[in-house]
Amino acid sequence: MKSEKNNPRRDFIKKSMFAAAGMIIIPGFVLGKDGEITSVTEQLSRAFAGQDGIKKIAFITHIYRNSAHADVIGTKLFLGIPTDEGMVAPQVKIASIYIEQIGANDTGVRIAKMNGTPIYSTVEEALTLGGDKLAVDAVVYVGEHGEYPYNRLGMKLYPRMNYLERIFRVFDASKRSVPVFTDKALSYSWLDSKWIYDRAKELQVPMMAGSSLPYCWRDKELVHPIGVKISEAVAIGYASLDAYGFHVTEILQCMVERRAGGETGVKSIEGLKGDDVWKAIDSGKISQKLVDAACDTIQDKETGNMREIVKIPYAVIVNYVDGTKGTIMMLDKYVKTGWAYSAKTSKGIVATEFVLAGGPNYSHFSYLSLNIQKFIVSGPVAPIERNLMTSGIIDMGIRSLEEGKVKQTPFLNIKYSAAGYESIRPSAPRPTGQSISRFHPKEYDFMIPDAFK
Q: Phi and psi for 412 in degrees, rounded to 5?
């Protein structure tokens, strides 16, 4: 164990913290005077995290390399979490790691050793800390990246159901369950996603899942009040439906779920590609005004005619049970790195850009990490039904596109309310402060690409 006087991680966090007048408490961390982490404030942090102190987590991932999701979440939980206001002291401790694929570009093994964290050879050993029963307070499973085949629909076959069942089996055998965060979609497959949801309910597993997009910056600030009347909404992104379409689906759903009557479920889904997307806009099936309003908020986009720039547009039209219409659009080449949302409400059209932060911090994952901590410490920050629905929507959208017909989705008649959930989000419109400043101590220079040094 490192001594109190020779702890590079603590020294770095102390130097990186912003100055505070007196002792303040902000969700996720506690600072003393002038940003100092003292024995007193550490005790307060542990008290804030729960009577049992800092929560011990098992960190399960497919691959841990620079800029992979395991890095942009896990390394922050090791070192501290960079936010607009300053560095956040983690309130969870990675007590064990399992990495499935350790290649030449792996950084996870080195980081684990630097922090004295054991690496186990199986998922089960990581959860039991080498014993017979569950021995951690929570599980963070990052089932993204790694070498896996693609199916006939072009979807990467991440083994998320397989991994979560291994986790659930340990819970079942130990006769107790702890919170589980699983990154992005529950699964590429609706059937697998529903199985995961049902199994978690059976074992009373608190679950959090999904994208970083619902927790990132919004320029301009837009949060629908609960009970807002929405007739139609559009969410914009880029790249492929399989890899990035889920993020756009999460943008759409985290906004429209707040509408009057709560979430009522999805009646049908239609996937479109190429000229069929432009025809849908021309016919009014997709609102041109909403597409334009959303795109107008995006700073990083090409100038010129959208239809000339986007060679192959994609769209997924979501028809909700209550008559609300949502559309997911992928406008590759026109939208470079931007994400956006617009909606027609009873008070007119509203729109915002969903803003991410680039490398090396990727600090939109800071706010996801803060919400993972809050979930582990004090309970859900969003309904897991949102992620069940988004997992199903994107799967059905890709299947509709492949089959060339509208998919009827009575199994997506998922009802839930977003009322009562509170997540942590940045208050600024775009990243600032520590979010865009170096947060790695020098010992971690090997994590930073040369372009960012």
A: -95, 20
Query: pLDDT digit string (tens) for 123-177?
Result: 999 999 999 999 999 999 999 999 999 999 999 999 999 999 999 999 999 999 9
User: Would 8-213+426-446 and 218-359+382-412 be classified into the same CATH topology?
Assistant: no
Q: Mind giving me the DSSP string for 115-156?
A: TT--B-SSHHHHHHTTSSS---SEEEEE--SS---B-TTS-B
Report how far residue 54's alpha carbon sits from residue 96's, in angstroms, rounded to the nearest whole number: 14
Burial of 118 (0-12, 13-18, 19+ CB in 10 A): middle
Distance of CA 162 to the CA centre of its chain: 20
How many CB atoms lie under 10 A from the CB of residue 447?
Answer: 18
The per-residue pLDDT of the chain, averaged, comes to: 90
- Dist CA 344 CA 321 (whole Å): 17
Structure tokens that stand for 142 in this block:
């990052």
- Indicate the burial class of 420 (C-beta count within 10 angstroms; 0-12, 13-18, 19 or more): exposed
| Helix (H) or strand (E) run with residue 39 in it | helix 39-49
* Residue carrying structure tokens 């002792």: 23
Write down the pTM of the prediction: 0.90
H helix or E strand, kind and range, residue 307: helix 306-309
Beta bridge partners of 328: 235, 316
Buried (b) or exposed (e) across 93-115, using 16+ Cβ within 10 A?
bbbbbbbbeeeeebbbeebbeeb
**Cα(164)–Cα(186) distance, integer angstroms:** 9
**Residue ranges per structural domain of the chain:** 8-213+426-446, 218-359+382-412
Asked if residue 20 has pLDDT above 60, the reply is no
Exposed / middle / buried, residue 215 (Cβ in 10 Å: 0-12, 13-18, 19+): buried
Q: Which residues pair with 275 in a beta bridge?
A: none
Element (H, E) at 166: helix 160-174
Task: Tell me the two tokens of residue 342.
Answer: 């617009």
* CATH code given to domain 8-213+426-446: 3.40.50.720
In CATH terms, the fold of domain 218-359+382-412 is: Dihydrodipicolinate Reductase; domain 2 (3.30.360)
- DSSP state at residue 19: P
Tokens of 288: 């041109």
Dihedral sign for Cα atoms in the order 166, 170, 171, 172: positive
Nearest CA-CA partner of 380 in 183, 255, 208, 202: 208
